[in-house]
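Appendix B. One record, verbatim.
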Amino acid sequence: MSAAPVARAVRREIGKLFDIEDLEDEDRGGQVHEVYRKKPLMSKTILFVYGSLKRGERNHHLIRDQRFLFEVTGLPKYRLLDLGTYPGIVRDNATGLTIRGELFEIQDCALDELDEFEGSPEHYKREVIEIDGIEGPVESYFYQHSIPERARSGSVWPFV
């Protein structure tokens, strides 16, 4: 195999990593030109999941084709509630906990389906959440009803 096709393949893979595509110059016999341009990026949202959407949980299939980033903890400004068969988070600046969860990069085209699943905006609403060590916007689904009187709270779901 000659070096030119290999070099093109390598440039193509590097371009995928950095969201660039190379331009081929027809005047140069199809050789890759030195100029690069940005690919149009699909819009993405970084989503913090803390309950049934996490890997290994019953509703993870809804986001299994999205990109898992890593496990994280929220800043101690929130409380994770046990609402029976599912959890919910609420803001609690006074006595909040460091909630553990997972970050996913979600294509915006998948957010409508997630919003519908979460009953947004009536039951859960996607809002910005602060995550320890993460700069930039991260969203999560916040519980929109009053807290049930005997709801347990903790930092990781499912509760033990």
